From TrEMBL:
The lineage of its organism: Eukaryota, Viridiplantae, Streptophyta, Embryophyta, Tracheophyta. Its main location: plastid. This is Bacterial surface antigen (D15) domain-containing protein. One of its GO terms (cellular component) is chloroplast outer membrane. It is found in: Plastid, Chloroplast outer membrane. The keyword Plastid applies. It comes from Opuntia streptacantha (Prickly pear cactus). GO terms for biological process: chloroplast organization; embryo development ending in seed dormancy. Residues 373-673 form the Bacterial surface antigen (D15) domain. Keywords: Membrane, Plastid, Plastid outer membrane.
Length: 674
């Protein structure tokens, strides 16, 4: 293939002064051939009637033609003979007679294809294309007006010719029918205007095979359809608005890409859906959008912007309406939003995994006040209290979803918490049946932001003061096995923790990878210094109607840390078939799970599962060896079956499990397995 030296690909709009005899093709003329040919070629019958009349009456034949046009994709038929007023009158009479004699036939002895000068075509392949297009016009055939008209249509419709003029010559051997054609120019170059998002490589690849060949209108239509398809598939407001063949075989394409002129927010009333005054600052919504002024509008991007605004949690309904921006060729975007109630009180209940016995085992109640749109900036404050048989958590959380002046969508959260949780995970099974509770006072700040698609990161600093109390509420430093309950030997441990976390989330949550690390900073001598790393991985694989879940988690602690911070193994989200923490507690751990779930009926599904967990022999390295004192095995497995019921809170899980000690146990939980 010759080198494409004549090709010019421009992805941005350039000035190109049109010549006086060339016109740009308007958008309404697309597709370029099919609409114009069907209407203009109907007039071929008008001219061929004269041809038939002239043969019958012995006059000189009158030509009928499709004259060349600077527009590559339109053809018009016009009479080429100058006519006086009397000839016009005769012409009208001939038309009338031809309509009556539409089925009369003229015997044609020879059919030829010639150029506009009556000579043979330079390219035999084009002559063969024209002859192959003929259907009725064959040597030694009797033709009607309609049949010649249809053959003219077929020659033009082949796509290689810009005009076709059939005429007849009375020879010694009979009537010779000649189709004078004018081929399109050879394709020598391309200029593309207004293509800001359309890749130049896509245009180049679309036209590369046609370089040096006669322009074919059908092929050009296909290329234009593929370009328009590229815009449509990707959601862009764009199309080919014009095509023009310039002198020298240079094709000029004009793209129409609708840029965003303006974006406005319109608040609608929740009940009437009429425009109203909103509480949210418009700039708080606009900064969430990825669509910007000056960009070519993209429907897919607009849908993602709608979803992003909905995830702010302060809107009940969001929609975008593009509107023409006058005659500029641009669009104005109007985003209609319906605000939710900003804040209020709520109450509810739940289940804690920390309590495994008692008449109110695991039940907790909660009361909270939350405000989702503080100061109209989508800032959130939440004050909550959870209270159970032993559990209690009081938490105040203030979140700024997007820090002002930051272009990375960084979120800041400030948290203060006072909690009391059972110590059964590590220090359960007291010989005197007494119970221990762990009290923590925590305050910290965290920053999180997207790192790249599907990846997010969190960094923070947290201060924690933790201690253990007995049933009377008195602080204790050792349990009934004389194992220490604090790392410092005091009634409370103080620690300043620097935290980092990286999370990967697959499409629709089908897979997840979490890696986190905490480092104790001994700013003061009595503050603890340790390093803790933890990793979790999970993937879901659909196999026909069933779903296979595989998960693996593990962690390790180095340094001086409180025994109650050891990794506890066993329970609903660990190794089922065991009580919470009953397998072991250590400085290290690994837990793996395999689960097959399948639909039963409606929202109800079934599951088969198997779990395994081990402390990797690290139980004795925990201060006081609480797992060894309680004769925990350090490793174990469980298996069983369960039922899942989908609910707005997540799947409700009821499971029955067996462990390797031949024990059986029910497990109940709400939400996905951690």
């Amino acid at each position: 293939m010759p080198k494409n030296e004549g090709l010019q690909f421009k992805s941005s709009s350039i000035k190109f002064p049109p010549s006086s005899d060339n016109l740009s093709l308007p958008v309404s003329h697309l597709p370029f051939c099919s609409q114009s040919l069907s209407s203009t070629l109907l007039r071929a019958k008008f001219s061929f009637t004269q041809f038939l009349d002239s043969i019958k009456h012995g006059r000189n034949p009158i030509k009928f033609s499709v004259p060349p046009s600077p527009l590559l994709c339109s053809s018009t038929l016009a009479l080429t003979q100058s006519q006086s007023q009397s000839e016009v009158t005769q012409l009208k009479a001939a038309v009338t007679r031809a309509r009556r004699e539409d089925e009369e036939r003229v015997l044609v002895s020879e059919v030829l294809v010639r150029n506009k000068d009556g000579e043979e075509l330079d390219r035999k392949d084009l002559e063969m294309e024209a002859l192959a297009a003929l259907k009725a016009s064959r040597p030694n055939s009797a033709l009607t007006v309609r049949e010649v008209q249809e053959d003219v249509h077929r020659i033009i419709d082949s796509g290689y010719f810009t005009s076709c003029i059939p005429f007849a010559v009375d020879t010694r051997d009979g009537i010779r029918l000649v189709f004078q054609v004018e081929p399109n120019q050879e394709f020598r170059g391309l200029v593309c205007e207004g293509a800001n998002v359309l890749p130049s490589k896509f245009i180049e690849d679309s036209f590369r095979d046609g370089y040096g060949k006669v322009v074919n209108i059908r092929r050009l239509d296909e290329v234009i359809e593929s370009i328009n398809g590229w815009y449509m598939e990707r959601g862009y407001f764009g199309m080919v608005s014009g095509a023009e063949l310039l002198s020298g075989g240079v094709l000029r394409l004009q793209m129409a890409e609708a840029e965003v002129n303006d974006i406005s927010i319109r608040f609608l009333d929740r009940k009437t859906r009429e425009p109203t005054i909103g509480k949210t600052k418009p700039e708080t919504i606009l900064r969430q959008l990825t669509t910007r002024k000056g960009q070519v509008y993209n429907l897919n991007q607009g849908r993602r912007d709608v979803e992003t605004v909905l995830t702010m949690g302060i809107m009940e309904d969001v929609s975008i309406f593009p509107q023409p921006a006058g005659d500029t060729g641009k669009v104005d975007l109007v985003m209609n939003v319906v605000e939710r109630v900003s804040g209020g009180f709520s109450a509810g209940g739940g289940i804690s995994s920390g309590i495994t016995s008692g008449p109110l085992s695991g039940l907790i109640g909660s009361f909270a006040y939350s405000h989702r749109n503080l100061f109209g900036k989508n800032q959130k404050v939440n004050i909550s209290l959870e209270r159970g048989q032993i559990d209690s958590i009081f938490r105040v959380n203030y979140t700024v979803p997007w820090i002002e002046g930051d272009d990375k969508r960084t979120q800041r959260s400030i948290m203060i918490q006072n909690s009391r949780t059972p110590g059964t995970l590590v220090h359960g099974d007291q010989r005197d049946n007494s119970s221990l509770t762990i009290g923590r006072v925590t305050a910290g700040v965290e920053f999180s932001r997207p790192l790249r698609p599907k990846w997010s990161g969190t960094a923070g600093l947290t201060f924690q003061r933790a201690g253990v109390r007995d049933e009377k509420g008195d602080p204790v430093i050792k349990d009934v096995y004389s194992s220490p309950l604090t790392a410092s030997g005091n009634t409370h441990d103080n620690m300043l923790l620097a935290k980092g976390e990286c999370v990967y989330t697959g499409d629709l949550g089908s897979s997840m990878l979490v890696f986190s690390m905490e480092q104790g900073l001994p700013i003061l001598p009595e503050w603890l210094s340790f390093n803790r790393v933890n990793a979790r991985a999970r993937t879901d694989v659909e196999v026909g109607p069933t779903n296979l879940l595989l998960s693996l988690s593990g962690g390790h602690v180095v340094g001086n840390f409180p025994p109650h911070e050891a990794f506890a193994i066993g329970g609903t989200n660990s190794v089922r078939g065991y009580e919470e923490g009953a397998v072991g507690s250590g400085r290290s751990y690994v837990v793996g799970c395999g689960e097959i779930s399948f639909p039963l009926f409606g929202p109800v599904g079934g599951a088969l599962f198997a779990d395994y967990g081990t402390d990797l022999g690290s139980g004795p390295s925990v201060p006081g060896d609480p797992a060894g004192a309680r004769l925990k095995p350090g490793s174990g497995y469980g298996y069983g079956f369960g039922v899942r019921v989908e609910s707005p809170l997540g799947p409700i899980r009821l499971e029955y499990a067996f462990n390797d000690k031949q024990a059986k146990r029910f497990h109940f939980a709400v939400g996905h397995r951690n």
